[in-house]
Queue: 2 jobs
Job 1
Amino acid sequence: MSAERVRAAFEEHGIDYELNEHPQAMTAQEMAAAEHRPGWQVAKPVFLWGGGELVMLVMPAPLEVDLDEAAAALGLERMRLATEEEFTEQFPDCEGGAEVPFGNFYDMPVYVEERLLEEAQITFAFGRHDQAATISVEDYVSMAQPTRVHVGTAMSQ
């Protein structure tokens, strides 16, 4: 189980990516440490329900979603975080909590916190808690075709 849909798409489109194995990391910040990367370069998918639809919001590791800002950015009255049970079945080739930031390959709209796109590269879980992929931001935007939003806030401690 290792993001086979995304791997196939990368190979089909000639996307250069670096694949690394690291000690098991359950959070994006833990993965940043395991990969020796700044959290701003690590993408974490956050799943939201709004307007009767499940959407993926891709955030840099140090930020959390502001649900009011997310709802406003998507033109909705309100949004809520999805439960893991509500989205894991849509990612049959990924471990729960290690989903790839390409919801479009899994029939889900993708939004990206624009601050993630300020980096040259991004790193993300590649379907497993012990595996990460790194690609250029340009290739990420090309493959994920996300809508850019500004909905992140600093994580509370």
Job 2
Amino acid sequence: MLKTKKYQFWFCTGSQDLYGEECLAHVAEHSGKMVEALNASGNLPYEVVWKPTLVTDGLIRRTFNEANIDEACAGVITWMHTFSPAKSWIHGLQELRKPLLHLHTQFNREIPYDSIDMDFMNENQAAHGDREYGHIFSRLHMARKVIMGYWEEADVQKRIGDWMRTAVGVIESRHVRVMRVADNMRNVAVTEGDKVEAQIKFGWEVDAYPVNDIAASVAAVSKGDIDALVEEYYDRYEILLEGRDEKEFRDHVAVQAGIEIGFERFLEERDYHAIVTHFGDLGALKQLPGLAVQRLMEKGYGFGAEGDWKTAAMVRIMKIMSQGMKDAKGTSFMEDYTYNLIPGKEGILQSHMLEVCPSVADGQISIREQPLSMGDREDPARLVFTAKTGPAIATSLIDLGNRFRLIINEVDCKKVERPMPKLPAATAFWTPRPSLQTGAEAWILAGGAHHTAFTFDLTAEQMGDWAEAMGIEAVYIDGDTKIRQFKNELFWNSIAYR
């Protein structure tokens, strides 16, 4: 169900008419060649669209307002080929409502030592044209992304591609709708938050439904549809009876198939993109949604347990940002459970009762059924697997009362030393950077939640850029983190974001 528009990014080149029509013709020619090469590079996830050179306040303003109303435009890439007086950009920038990348580059890679003259110097002035342009953003206190480097270099193109994914996350955030089944887990603080402020800040619409409204949708699913999906489960996954009666096992799996179909129909009919459930309020549902929710996440829906709508929305956004990524390793809801504190083998076992997305799975995925000590329902079926390994990030969006903070932790996912045959849940195991001790201390100092939106496929930089575009605080826990400096950063941020 992961549906996003076929987005484009406008390439806008700045100049002025001081140097004559021939110069402007060269500017247009050069920027056109750059756009063609960027699109042909294979390093960008979305198309770049060339726009005529911007030379006046009126043209800049008109172009940016056209970008605002073009639903296919997810952002604007700007570059000053020559010197473009920044006062000409003020009105346009003030009215622009799309993400903006300032690409600091130049058409030629090398100084043409034998032929360079003042005509060349006048025409190729990005070195100081982009500085003039950059200044006005600082004066206007506007968020933007700056990428410096030669436009033909693959690493520069890949950074542009990374920013494109962030920009789409910003645009799509304005359309995220979260469906809450029942309410938050009673007496839990971190999953609560100001839903009105979240809609103002991020664009999220968060609505609650009585659990039996969605249970009715589940009950309406035909036996034929359920049986067909059960067959798909049995074909795709390893079935672990573990001594259970085969018919009973299949009947319990069928319950999850009905939940998956019923939930998805309910979500699609009402145009919701993320869902939260609560084990304490299951109404007429026979099982806590497990396998069903895992597969919905795999299809692109966001999810948060125990009413955690903030994490559900973040999982959805991060899935959108990583959509179509080559060799993607997965994005999921996750929860910190228990530590391994053996020196040299430190880490955190990540899991949840049932709901970890199979997009992060490494190898065989199995269906197991085990009793659940909460929820007062029959034994739910769930997908069980271990996660992939490698670098990843875990994020937590928290509400501090007067503002939101996004906490971003770089982590290294590993395999556990030995199997855990009695644990009937999907798991990941990671060590936070710079170490378990410093990473966990920093996370707690920052107020991070036990639920996270986790991904192998995005970077801390991308999520920090998303937070900046949203106008919220972002704090990073990574290989450079030192607790004394981190505490100072939190204090300074409490003043800056007041």
